[in-house]
User: What shape does this take?
Amino acid sequence: MEHIGLFGGTFNPIHVGHIRAIQEVQKRYALDKFYIIPAALPPHKEPGDVVDAKWRLEMIRLSVSEYPELLKSVIISDVELKRSGPSYSIDTVNHFKSVLPDYSRLYFILGIDAFLEIDTWKSFSELFYLTSFIVMTRPKGINIDGALKWKVLEDYIKGKISDTYKFSISRSCFVHHEKQKIFFVDIDSLDISSTQIRNLIKKGRPIKLFVPKKVEDFIINKGLYI
Ligand code: ATP
Assistant: This one.
């Protein structure tokens, strides 16, 4: 069995919060391969200030190159960039299902902020048959703390996905008789978002604490987000 992580996002730009998230997931799950998949046209985001996909892809490459331990498992995928139109996760998951060997098991990785909107995604209920999920906490983004996050997650899963998902203490995830597992990891995450970084740049403020050095240099050299 090979365990494969799929981590999609706009990465506009990638930041150290994303990197921390990958490191934390890898610390706990040690996935054999970890795909980072930038979206072409994110269906749920304003296209306005999303920079060209080739720049976002390049910034991901530069980031990964600064973290040698990630190079072992991380693969940057341009599959969503090659498709025309908005990037729907269902198409991406189906793509990986069709190209990966049968012994692969998929884990779709996302922050709790993104997960709690999943009922607005195209064919979302089908996704739960195709892939497991690893849902990560984010420090802000949703204003809830500690144990309450579990409750919010549980209510959402039961209300919007299927009321027969049950929490299994022994497996530390939500299990279902037909659908795949939903893991929830309370990661030691950083309170950083791409929006925050774009706003800092617009105000002419430094971003060095929030992005890897090579990404900072790249953004400055190309004059992105100003
Ligand atoms: P924006 O501010 O433009 O909405 P973002 O910082 O949320 O962007 P995305 O590219 O939309 O970044 O995120 C991709 C995935 O990474 C999402 O699943 C999101 O929840 C997760 N993520 C983003 N930032 C963090 C963080 N600091 N900690 C944990 N997960 C994160």
